[in-house]
Amino acid sequence: MKLLALAIEGFRGISHANIRFGDHDVLVGANGAGKSTIVDAMSLVFGRTRLVRELTEHDFTGSCPTATSRIRVVATLAGFEGDEPNQHDAWFREGRAVPKWWNAATGIAEPQAGDHVRPLCAQVAFAARFDSEQLVVESLRYFHDDDNIEDPFLDDAIQQIPLRLFDDVGYYVLPARRTWEAAASFASELFRKAVATVGGVPAQTVLDERDRLRQPVSPLEGDVGLQPLVERVNRQLTQLLPNAPQFQLRVTATDSESLLHALVPHYSAHAGTSLPVGRHGTGLLSLQTFILLLELGRERRRQGKPFLFAMEEPELHIPPGMQRRLVAQAVSIAQQTICTTHSPRVASFYPATSLLVLERRPGGVACTPLLSAPLDRSATNALRKLCHEDRPRVVEGLMQHRVLIPEGRSEYEWFRLLADLLETATRVDEVADSQTAAFGTLIGVVPTHDSAVTETFATLRRLRDGLVPLVDGDDAGNAKVSQLDALTLGPTLILQWRDGWTIEDGIGWILKGDEVAAGDALRERIDTHFDSIDHLVKQFKIRTGPGRLKVNYLAYEGVVSVIGDLPTCRARAATMLEALTRACVGQHDGCAMLVRDDTKDAHCVVLRLTP
Amino acid sequence: MNLSFFEGPAGSGKTTRLFETLATTLAARPLLPHERVLALTKMHGSRRRMHGRLSSVAGLRDRFNCMTVDSFAWRLVRRWRTLAGAKGWSEPPENDYAEVSRCAGLLLADGIVNRWVARGFPIVVIDEMQDSKGGQLEIVRGLSQSAICLIAADDFQDLDGGVDNAAIAWARESGKVVRLSQNHRTTAAGLLNAAQSLRGGQAVPIKGQGFTILGALNANVGAGFVSRNLTWWSGTRDIAVISPVRPDVSPFVRDLLLRVAQKPIGTPPFGPHRVPWEVSQEDECQFFLTGLGLPSDDAAELCAADLVLTANNAASKVLRMWLDQQRTLSGRTRFAAREIQERARAIHQRSRAYRRAPDGGVRAMTIHQAKNREFESVIILWPYQVVGSADRKRRLLYNAITRAKRQAMVVIQNPARLNEPPFVAGDS
Q: Is A98 within 8 Å of B74 when comparing Cβ atoms?
């Protein structure tokens, strides 16, 4: 079974979304873009309601559902062997789904098969409405027959879905909230399911243990200290009741159900002390949940059953080194995985075609793969780097509120180092009164190669808005402004260094905040000869040849650590990053360092970064 | 194609054979856990009777769906509307039953669709196939592509029909035909003779064992005959007074029934007899609509709260539920009178039958209402208002007479009409 697509309407922050899945996908996006809403939407339609909170008004987009407000999730499932409805009685017959065929080009399930319209698919849906008279949310799971359905609650021909059919889908979710109750005890649905799938409940052992608990060797009521109390209770009972029963104390309710309920996994450390999993910290708990699900999936596959695995933030509480390893296992076990993550490491495990970027747009939430098809031979080096080598950095950048796209890799390094410096080295007395949030929390920087700002911008613009190119203050920079401005979906804002400047001049300007001290300190830190800061700046611009410092990242670190030691330099660095931040978030008015350039005949706003 | 067709005159045991064959078919090809038998009928009245008979088939309890062709068609069209749209067939309005059937018939011609139905319903049972016209015939044809079909019909019982019944012609050439001729319903020679004469287009003997034809000069005289026979036959307590038309169409029928109920007649006095008119689906719907207190102007808007929905019958409940749904699901509380009328009709046409006609006793009804049923004794009123060709009149009278198991009497308005068809041979 394979989930081809998920259409969501009116569910929490997603007024509308249409997501198409491959075999293994990862969903990334800014906070609130709707990653967990998508996983919850899948849980709604595939019926593991236990893992989703009960629905309330807040689950309806806008939180104020009217009589006609609906949550609707439509899932398109394929993977029916042979693509022949006659061979899948359980899914395609009167009383079940109407067969449809998937048109991959349009993303529409069509009523008739065709040359390019395959595979066979079934559409299942979940709908909910809020009853403002009864104050309850009513929900319905049904076979989705037609996209133009008016209202499943009013349609008397609607066919509801029997729950057991969902075993065919085999949907399991690793929830973001890996609580103790949800995962640790035998009472948890997951634990039981895992045991039942793998080997069945160890019945005889449980029954033996139950019998032992019924007849304890030294019963508590026989304890010397308790004896007087127990005797008094028994005497009272005898006076009140004929054939009075005798008071006893037993661990558990002495049936197998309560025994299973009472079971708690323990883990013993090397010292031999055995501790319940809840005492081990969230790491082990997270790991236990993950491993249980993986084992469950492995067993299902062994039995020829499908396993569709949704992982919410698999990186949670798990050491970085283990994250990708577990995700890799999940991918190898499940026919299909759908993963949400905040971790660039986890995200970049997936190829660019499987990396789906979520973006909130006026019409709903869009979900676009970083690449719509694998790169072919004609792809430029810049695009290759962007989608392969730099994928973790690109993902990290894309998760931010705004994304800066400079001309090269150097800017990426400079900004990263400066942002790190200001995050860690700023002293309490220096925390500015600024209304602007810190650069590092709002702005992501995407490394570019071969100065391919325009290509990088165009590639990423498919995925999301809020991209700001930053180009040099030279003729090449001017040419890029024209190129960018000519794009169909071009930027609304371009940043450009002041005439003749590049990032290195900006660094020079920061160092000149305390030119003498900076020069002295740098001479000790950097293994190169320079006469002045200006001279040093020149060297940082040289990529090859004698005295070159460009892409000498060790030298970058030296410079930034010197800036960190000198308060005036630090202040200049802060001012520059603040100007960048203000430009990106549209608060450039009143910022002295940002000068609007009206000389260019561009559709978009061009701001010159003028320290 | 796996189709068995049972053809024969009224009372020849078609339906019995149909269900016997269903039982043997099930024995040879047991239903899989998810499968059911589909039984289609035209009207709700016959749906109820069919339901009763299906319940008595061994091993079939709860393993069948018995519904009217209209509701089957509507569901099918709703569920397959994407395909219908792709083929360029517009979705018919809910209340246009002929169009709904036509669209369902078109859909079922597609192998994907008929196999889809047959995977849930591998066996389909259809009684009174002679009444399947147009889209309804196409529905059965489509179903027969993939499902085992058990069909019963008698072309002479097609009341609207002429000589060529397309459904019967199709069934004859498409399946294994079993012709039945022995009448099992009655052994009364007079009844058998009369039925045979009508089928053959010959003169009907006026008197025979269990059968008489009487001419009445007026309603009072007719009432005398009826009252006397009701008294004589009171031992059976299962008597139908059957008329080709409703009392509001024929003063003869109306006055006669009133007179029978009013006071005793003749010496020795017979009656009075209570002969309630059995409520038909249309009557029930009309009665229901009248009770709602709708404005006379169809387009007038009204508030749901203004409707008189106090009756505790099923239709009121369903309509109340629909109004509640409209309020809570769509936020609607105002409706055009026409919309309420249409909804009420749909409720009566498509939803389950509501008032169960009681078995036994004395009741009056039209020939259409009496179709496919049987009674101990039958009194047929033959007023002036019977229209149509001689053939149609024979079919009507045949249908009425063959409802009787033991005895029947025909009361003709004006004795002179005894010399006209259907009582004599030839065309009118």
A: no
Helices within A462-529 (DSSP H only): 475-486, 503-511, 515-525
ipTM of the complex: 0.82
Core vs surface per residue A569-592: b (16+ CB within 10 A) or e: bbbbbbbbbbbbbbbbbeebeebe
B111 touches chain A (CB under 8 A): no
- String of b and e for A152-174 (b: at least 16 CB within 10 Å)? bbebebbbebeeebbebbbbbbb
CB burial of residue A35 (10 Å; 0-12, 13-18, 19+): buried
Residue A455 contacts residue A483 (beta carbons within 8 Å): no
CB proximity B121 to A under 8 Å? yes
**How would you write B284-351 as a 3-class SS string?**
HHHHHHHHHCCCCCCCCEEEHHHCCCCCCCHHHHHHHHHHHHHHHHHCCCEEEHHHHHHHHHHHHHHC
Q: Per the structure block, which two tokens stand in for A211?
A: 């019998």
Q: Does A229 reach chain B within 8 Å, measured CB to CB?
A: no
Tell me the H-state helices in B203-307: 219-232, 251-262, 281-292
Q: Which of A83, A93, A103 to substitute to test the interface with B, most B CBs within 10 Å?
A: A93
Q: Is the pLDDT of residue A568 over 80?
A: yes
Q: From the candidates A94, A117, A139, which should be mutated to test the interface with B, based on the most B CB atoms within 10 A? A: A94
Q: What is the pLDDT of residues A521-566, one digit of tens each?
A: 999 988 888 999 999 999 999 888 887 888 888 999 999 999 999 9
**Positive or negative CA dihedral for A480, A482, A483, A487?**
positive
Of A85, A94, A145, the CB nearest to B81: A145
The model's pLDDT over A119-150, given as tens digits with 9 standing for 90+, comes to 999 999 999 999 988 888 999 999 999 988 78
Using CA atoms, how far residue A268 sits from A76, A180, A265, in Å, is 45, 18, 10
- Residue A233, pLDDT above cutoff 70: yes
Distances (CA, A) of B347 to B7, B314, B344: 33, 10, 5
Neighbours of A485 (CB within 10 A): 17
Q: Give the Cα-Cα-Cα angle A34, A357, A483 (nearest 5 degrees).
A: 130
Amino acid letter at B74?
W
Cα distance from B66 to chain A (closest Cα, Å)? Answer: 14
Q: How wide is the angle at C-alpha A322 spanned by C-alphas A316 and A326, nearest 5°?
A: 85
d(CA A182, CA B362): 68
The pLDDT, as a whole number, for residue A178 is: 72
DSSP state of B258: H
List the beta bridge partners of residue A14.
Answer: A11
Q: How confident is the model at residue B160 (pLDDT cuts 50, 70, 90)?
A: confident
Q: Six-digit token pair at A481?
A: 């402004």
CA distance A86 to A113: 14
Nearest residue to B108 via CA among B130, B132, B128: B132
Place of tokens 């039942």: A196
List all residues 6 or more positions away from B27 whose beta carbon is below 8 Å from its beta carbon. none
Partnered with residue A129 across adjacent β-strands are: A138
* B88 close to A (CB below 8 A): no
- Residue of chain A minimizing CA distance to B351: A156
Q: Exposed (0-12), middle (13-18) or buried (19+): which is A88, by Cβ within 10 Å?
A: buried
Residue A288's contacts (CB-CB under 8 Å, 6 or more residues apart) are A183, A184, A265, A277
B172's tokens: 């004859």
Chain A residues whose beta carbon lies within 8 Å of the beta carbon of residue B119: 86, 89, 92-94
Q: Does A114 touch chain B (CB under 8 A)?
A: no
Q: How many residues does chain B have?
A: 428
Hey, is the C-beta of B63 within 8 angstroms of any chain A C-beta?
Answer: no
Query: Two tokens at B259?
Result: 């007179």
Task: Report the pLDDT value the prediction gives residue B279, as an integer from 0 to 100.
Answer: 80
A138 lies within 8 A of chain B by CB: no
Residue that is written with structure tokens 């009513």 in the block: A138
Judged by a CB distance cut-off of 8 A, whether residue A94 touches chain B is yes
